[in-house]
Amino acid sequence: MQILIVEHFPVVRAGIRQWLSATPDLVIAGETASAREGVSMAASLQLDIVLLDIATPHKNGYEALLAFKETRQTLPVLIINGHPEQFHALQLMNSGASGCFPANGESDELIRAIRAVGSGKHYPEEIAPRRQVELDGEPRALHEKLSPREYEIFHSICRGERLTETADRLSLSLSTVNRYRKQVLVKIGVEDIPGLIRYAVHQGIDGFQY
After folding, report:
1. Is the pLDDT of residue 132 over 50?
2. What Å distances lie between residue 40 and 43, 64, 66, 70, 92, CA to CA?
3. Smallest Cα–Cα separation from 83: which of 169, 189, 155?
4. I need a labelling partner for 77 at 20 to 30 A (CA). Which of 56, 95, 118, 146 fits?
5. Residue 100's beta-bridge partner residues?
6. Is pLDDT above 50 for 190?
7. What is the DSSP annotation of 114-144?
8. Distances 82 to 4, 16, 38, 42 between C-alpha atoms, Å
9. At 131, is the pLDDT very low, low, confident or very high (cuts 50, 70, 90)?
10. CA-only gyration radius of the chain, Å
11. Is the pTM of this model over 0.85?
């Protein structure tokens, strides 16, 4: 199984390399700290799976994931996810990820996750069967009503990014970003940004630092 590692911390990347090198059926086809470079590598390498850190520079997790899927729609992407709440993993999987591996996970768990995703399954398996149920059913929290793009804007607001910065990073017009921001406020049911931040803190989802 040919694997591309996209992880911005050199020490973590070295640890993953060591884990995978000890497993004969897993081959490291390439590695990089940059999602942008990783997308370029994915276009030229014969890969079976991408192991993607959600906190890579220049692109956040959603942007990087979408870029890889645009390069090759069927390429499985396993996200290294530092956010504990299950809904964050659900959103990533609804955006095209094949699985989410916890950043504090063990080596044997990572190998199981890679093999599962590489064989066409989802990881963790208990999330995938619930995806459509949760989408069709009544959301458990207000932020679960957000679309992937709205959730991305929600992230940018929570980490204090200015509208102009968000627009430049996402290659969107300022009016489009402002429209998404208004939609987020409406769906969360608050009138202003401080209210949105209070909601995020209350939900325990305010720590989106990329």
Report:
1. no
2. 5, 12, 13, 11, 21
3. 155
4. 146
5. 79
6. yes
7. HHHHHTT--BSTTTGGGHHHHHHS--SSGGG
8. 19, 15, 20, 23
9. very low
10. 17
11. no
